[in-house]
Amino acid sequence: MRLNADFTQTIIVKPENTNWSPSPAKGVERIMLDRIGEEVARATTIVRFAKDKYFPEHQHDGGEEFFVLEGVFSDQYGDFPAGTYVRNPVGTSHSPHTVKGCIIFVKLWQFDQGDDKQFSINTNTAQWISSTNPDQKILPLHHFNDEIVQMEKWASGSFIHRVAPKGGVEILVLEGSLQDNNERYPQRTWLRYPEAEILNFTVTEDCTLLCKSGHLPNTEADD
């Protein structure tokens, strides 16, 4: 399968244009955002787990990065409530489960081999920092080589102007909404921009964004 596999193209997926589709695991549904491969794939996906789901231990051969959007995701390392950011590098393994169900935003097979730090951050209790823009606050989550992952909070009525850096940028709207050229991007909109693309947003509602940059190839990916 190849879905949004050309990383030189701007891709915007709004929630009203998506549908949940079943996965091979009973009680697990997903919204595929980009994908290269079949069940073992380089993939960016929103995944919904029904309650009382337990999975056998498995290894992350390509690494796993996820953000809990709703509910509580658990494994032998702890319970991760909504608002938790987790990185499981190449070679790590776990036995995940969820008691009451959960939804996660997950990225698979997108780790640099040298990026081997396993950790989680509960962003509900983490310390945000002020930026040079008084309308913006930042919560750094991860930085390795050119890759930067952070959360951003923006006040309603503010303007976001930036140029996508080398390696492009992805944005998931966690809360609130943005607008660009009269197009509104509500909660759960996913946006991916290639290197050098100019971004201009008006914040139409106090928003929280999950941003990841510097990690995309500047080409159409091969299988």
Number of strands: 22
Question: Can you tell me the CATH topology of the largest domain?
Answer: Jelly Rolls
Question: What is the name of the CATH superfamily of the largest domain?
Answer: Jelly Rolls
Count helical runs.
0
Proportion of residues in β-strands: over 45%
| Name of the CATH class of the largest domain | Mainly Beta
Order of helices and strands: EEEEEEEEEEEEEEEEEEEEEE
Percent helix:
under 10%
Question: What is the alpha-carbon Rg in Å?
Answer: 17 Å
Broad shape? globular
Largest β sheet strand count, sense and barrel closure:
9 strands, antiparallel
Topology:
Elements: E1 2-3, E2 11-13, E3 21-22, E4 28-37, E5 41-49, E6 53-54, E7 58-59, E8 64-75, E9 78-81, E10 84-88, E11 93-94, E12 97-98, E13 102-108, E14 119-122, E15 129-130, E16 136-144, E17 147-154, E18 159-163, E19 169-180, E20 183-185, E21 190-193, E22 198-213
Antiparallel strand pairs: 1-4, 2-21, 3-4, 4-5, 5-13, 6-12, 7-11, 8-9, 8-10, 8-13, 10-14, 15-16, 16-17, 17-22, 18-22, 19-20, 19-21, 19-22
Overview features:
RmlC_Cupin_sf; single chain; mainly beta; ChrR-like_cupin_dom; nine-stranded antiparallel β-sheet; Jelly Rolls; 223 residues; 0% helix; 56% strand; globular; 2 domains; Cupin domain-containing protein
Describe the structure in brief:
The chain is mainly beta. It contains no helices and 22 strands. It folds into two domains: about 20-120, Sandwich (Jelly Rolls), CATH 2.60.120.10; about 130-215, Jelly Rolls (Sandwich).
